[in-house]
């Protein structure tokens, strides 16, 4: 048997050596302090960040598993949930808990719907929820984990879910409808009021995914921007998820799920009274929960406050509008839909947008790629403010470079065309093996300009057999997490 490449250390390393090694590794990561990263990192500014880090360190070792031993964490969690709930116009009857992020917030909401249905729809054997095709994949992951099927509704031309299509998908197995405010791909808010009316008509639960917008839309609305009703003001909305570690500018690992009633929240909980180790109860998916993100989230809300969040939201929206108008001014470019806040996507009817993304990445600008249609995605945060002119100049330069390399653009399209043809002609197993070898190059993990290349992403987006794509992605993911 071969020995593992990395063996367990025999002796502890010197602390200075460890920190030196960590700094060496971190030096290869993409930089977020220069304003060229969109999303992933949300930073409130040096003064507030220092206070939030101090709070995190203060509760570094504390465990929220037992609220009677760590009563401070119980207080901090309850107050954090209450502060976010007030932004979302919750009533005194509402209740919620903190989670480690949007995925867990969505997971507990889906689990709650399943267990609510067991009590109130015991005749349902194969529960289903209905969601827009733009809903976050965490819903698919959650449904897979708790044994629920998702039926996806199509979109209107404005990229918001079509209420008529939602209602058509309702059947005897439906237990919940979910929508986004806003959706991640395009930043548009689904028609919450219309969908809520449908949910009430059929006596279904309705969850609004505000993981992106929960700590941004309330401030955008207060600034006078048009924001349609999306929160607990809408009768029929039964739960909402919102991330504090995004536009709440807290440390990673903090989100909330809030329910319209305490009775509904009880379906989120897990209790087990027959364990020899004692009575076991946990409010969310985790047992042990670090106290640090809870304390950091509470501190972020307190340190920044309404005035601070409004100021940052105003700056972010000004930057967003300037970037969007500049994109629209480039011939052949357009912003998709009508984004409600600082999350949006843009594409081009004239250029290969993936090649534009690659060229931007070569110059240190990190934008995500979308598919159906091909597009580049931007999440503008406080870090990007003041760098809009720099980005616009980089985008125009990327367009000029692509226009000057027509052969490169054509070759990319040829590769995608050939891959699509091979996917139809070759046996599935052959094609997966061939594509896997090619796409293993799509993210070498160097950090600073890593990501899926134009040709590789174009291939993945163009293959009709999505099971092939899933197999390729699994293989690539496996390679990424191998020493």
Structure notes:
The strands form three sheets. A seven-stranded mixed beta sheet has the order 1-7-6-5-4-2-3, sandwiched between helices. The chain has helices at residues 15-26, 46-58, 71-87, 102-120, 138-146, 163-169, 192-201, 217-222, 262-265, 291-328, 353-362, 388-403, 406-425, 428-439, 454-462, 466-480; strands at residues 95-99, 128-132, 149-153, 174-180, 205-209, 239-243, 255-259, 270-272, 280-282, 333-335, 343-348, 368-370, 375-379. By secondary structure, the chain is α/β, with parallel strands linked by helices. The mean pLDDT is 89. The chain is built from 16 helices and 13 strands. Helix 4 (102-120) packs across helix 5.
Low-pLDDT windows of residues: none
Structural class: alpha/beta
Number of strands: 13
Termini Cα gap: 17 Å
Looking at CATH, which topology of the largest domain would you report? Aspartate Aminotransferase, domain 2
The CATH H-level superfamily of the largest domain is Type I PLP-dependent aspartate aminotransferase-like (Major domain)
On the 0 to 100 scale, the average pLDDT is 89
| Assembly level | single chain
Helical fraction equals 40-55%
* CATH class descriptor of the largest domain: Alpha Beta
Q: What percentage of amino acids are in beta strands? A: 5-15%
Q: What is the succession of H and E elements?
A: HHHEHEHEHEHEHEEHEEHEEHEEHHHHH
Count, helices: 16
Overall morphology: globular
**How many individual domains?**
2
Largest sheet properties: 7 strands, mixed
Q: Provide the CATH architecture of the largest domain.
A: 3-Layer(aba) Sandwich
Which strands sit side by side, in order, in the main sheet? 1-7-6-5-4-2-3
CA gyration radius, whole angstroms? 24 Å
